[in-house]
Amino acid sequence: MSTPPPFVLVTGPEELLAERATESVVQAVRAAEPEVEVVRLHASAYQPGELLVHASPSLFGGSTVLVVHDMDEADDALVDDLSAYLEQPADGVTLVVRHKQGNRGKRVLDALRKADARVVEAKAVRTEKDKHDFVVKEFRAARRKIAPEAVNALVLAVGKDLRELAGACAQLVRDVEGLVEAEDVATYYGEKVETTGFKVAEAALAGQEAVAMRLLRHAMLGGLDPVPIVAVLAMQLRQVGRVAAAGRGSAGQLAKDLGMAPWQVDQARRVAQAWDGPRLGAAIQAVAAADVDVKGGIRTEAAVRSPEYAVERAVLEVCRLRQAGTR
User: Fold this and answer.
1) How far apart are CA 200 and CA 230, in angstroms?
2) Does residue 7 sit in helix, strand or coil?
């Protein structure tokens, strides 16, 4: 691990990535100076002159890492003190400035870049593709391999929270030997709603009515909410429709155009071979109706349709539409 420069700027809103970048700087300095002092300053509680006090040389010597959090919330006092410090930096001090987004504190950001600060980006991880890429990088960093289907299952299972997703990657790396498969993800996270939804959607799109209904009813008996199950089914159908409508071309180029991973394009193409436009459109409409139904939007004169009934009806309709293509 190389010794960091005296100035490091961590930009971007993704808290986990920003924390990792900051910790890597601390560990790099600590490797050379085990007794390094780490001082954390927060913009919301900053007192004028505080930065300069901590940056002053200690009577006992030693190194200091100064971490300034939330520069995007800084008041004039913090901006002025940082600007003054950058003009006359202290020996033995590594300054890490964290800035999520926006233009507040721009004077300091410009000064850091002009001073050749190391810039580390902590970009937001929001889209499905972002999360897939994150999982792949986590396994690559651990020098391990994970099957594409396992990546998809893991993102569907725990992808709502990046910390949970990172923890799941670490657990699988620690506990599973060799290539991590979708079955391994199911073993650890099979009770997650999104994973169940993925399995139901996969069976429904393949026309496997008995399998889809068994998985769905097991999920319902376990008390799982039908809303995300319908959402996953809708997502899978939309992907198939988008890929089918995109025509030919390399998986890599289509993935880039559609915001998907290349293996997802390949998977959607395989599924699309058994569907035509009218049946796919009818399946999408059936799932859209179920989406309204499970959220309480449908009422009949006789009774209120239950969410469980709505999702079962949609899954059965998708299965039957798929089977119609083989007759």
Assistant:
1) 9
2) strand
For 141, half-sphere exposure in the C-beta direction (CA atoms, 13 angstrom radius) is 9
Instruction: Give me the half-sphere count of Cα atoms (radius 13 Å) on the Cβ side of residue 300.
Output: 7
If one compares 314 and 252, the residue with the highest pLDDT of the two is 314
For residue range 104-137, what is the model confidence (pLDDT) as tens digits?
889 999 999 999 999 999 999 988 789 999 999 9
Q: 20-29, 166-175, 239-248: which range is least confident on average?
A: 239-248
**Collapsed DSSP state (helix, strand, coil) of residue 212:** helix
Calculate the average pLDDT of the chain: 87
Q: Give the separation between CA 227 and CA 311, rounded to whole angstroms.
A: 8
Triad 92, 95, 101: Cα angle to 5°: 175
Q: What is d(CA 134, CA 16) in angstroms, rounded to the nearest whole number?
A: 12
Tell me, what's the pLDDT at 299? 46
Biggest CA pair distance of the chain: 86
Spatial CA neighbour of 157 closest among 189, 126, 181: 189
H-type alpha helices, 33-123: 50-55, 76-87, 106-114
Q: Give the tokens for residue 312.
A: 């079962």
Which secondary structure element, helix H or strand E, spans residue 97, and what is its range?
strand 93-99
Task: State the amino acid at position 194 in one-letter form.
Answer: E
Between the CA atoms of 273, 226, 288 and 253, what dihedral angle is there, to the nearest 10 degrees?
-40
For 60-113, what is each residue's pLDDT tens digit?
Answer: 567 899 999 999 999 999 999 999 999 999 989 999 999 999 988 899 999 999
Can you count the helices (H) and strands (E) in the chain?
A: 15, 5
Q: Given the structure tokens 């940056």, which residue do they identify?
A: 55
- Rounded Cα distance between 62 and 93, Å, is 9
Name which of 99, 46, 315 is nearest 207 in CA terms.
Answer: 315
d(CA 111, CA 129): 34
Strand ranges (E), the chain: 7-11, 37-42, 64-69, 93-99, 118-121
Supply 51's token pair: 């930065």
Residue 192 one-letter amino acid: K
